[in-house]
Amino acid sequence: MFETLVRVFAGALAGYAGIGLTFAFVFVSVGVQRLDPLARGVGFGSRLSILPGMTAFWPVFLSRGCASSSSRHQKILLTELHEPRTNMIQPSRLTRASF
Question: Is the full-model pTM beyond 0.90?
């Protein structure tokens, strides 16, 4: 009885992880740019670092991905919030003399 319960739980956990890993590979390669416009151009290491979190929390990211694709104004709002301001000093231009 206990062994059957453990096998069912292990099978469910393996199925969840399999679906999550498949979703994470697809989302990291294609879908992350939809959710965050700043994710364009990030390297392989950055994408690899978010893969475990995507695998574990794939239902959350799936619901956010579906919600963001249905509302275009949210995407426009995120783009406006992430644009750099031109009247501010960029951190790369700061030197000791400018302090």
Answer: no
